[in-house]
Design a protein that fits this description.
With about 270 residues, the chain is an alpha+beta fold. It has helices at about 5-20, 40-50, 140-150, 155-160, 170-180, 190-210, and strands spanning about 25-30, 55-60, 60-65, 70-75, 80-85, 95-100, 105-110, 120, 255, 265. The strands form three sheets. A four-stranded antiparallel sheet has the order 1-6-7-5, covered by helices on one side. It has a four-stranded antiparallel sheet with strand order 2-3-4-8. A two-stranded antiparallel ribbon has the order 9-10. A hairpin with a 3-residue loop joins strand 6 (about 95-100) and strand 7 (about 105-110). The longest helix is centred in the last third of the chain and has 20 residues, at about 190-210. The two termini are about 30 Å apart. It binds a DNA duplex (16 and 16 nucleotides) through helix 5.
Amino acid sequence: MPELPEVETIRRELEPALLGTRVRSVWTSGFALRLGRPVDRDALVAACVGHRVRAVLRRAKYLVIEFDEPHRIVVHLGMSGRLLLVDARTPRPAHTHVVFALDGARELRYVDPRRFGLVAADAPELAALGLDPFDPALTGERMHKLTRATRRAVKEFLLDQRGVVGVGNIYACEALHVARIHPKTPASRLSRARATVLRDAIRAVLTQGLANRGTTLRDYVSAGGAIGDNQSHLRVYDRAGRPCPRPGCGQVRRLPNQARGTFYCPRCQCR
DNA sequence: CCGGAGACCTGATAGC
DNA sequence: TGCTATCAGGTCTCCG
């Protein structure tokens, strides 16, 4: 469900609301969240109960809630996860799997119908993540080096979190449209100039998504339960058959025989 | 090691 | 009105 703008929107809402707050207890539903990785309630308790929140960080699509050193909690929302900060008297919705009871009769709840997400005291996969799109270290040259290193289509490159992180299916389609690059273009065939244009396009679509507090097509809501506005600003994603936003251009199409929807304009996105 | 396919889940919606 | 099939903001793992 959530890509960088959605996760960052949640972070921006959670951090000021949680700073200094103490965790009183942890409840879990007993469901394994992520295949082969059940929630370890004891580890969560050890990591946060009695501790105060010192920071809420985002790494790629992960949220990291930091307590007094060295304690922390890592959350990934998968496809359908929600992290909600609510009054403890609010009825718990179905698929509530983890609840952190906080000072002030509030609760931080992890709700996830599909259970693709993650709530843990530790997440080794953080170490394998690539560069944040807004990291100054992601120069045009660095971007080109990354794209040159794979023979996959550029759309697949964007979804791979080992190179550039935070981009998922929606913003990958959007960035490629802004950059006028066909999704099936082999990443390795992008010139340095086009790789730089793509980096700038990624930053532009993510910045717009952030300004609109995320894209809500189905499940996404912020920590306070608010939906985003970015869905009304999408250029190509989920818009097959509608006109390309570039005046007098083509019609948005969906690539056939692809597991995940890839939307693009065949007229302005060339290989 | 790389890349592609399938797996993991539930729920909403489209089509018959 | 049901029923079934398809699809969904993500990653992992298992093959070749």
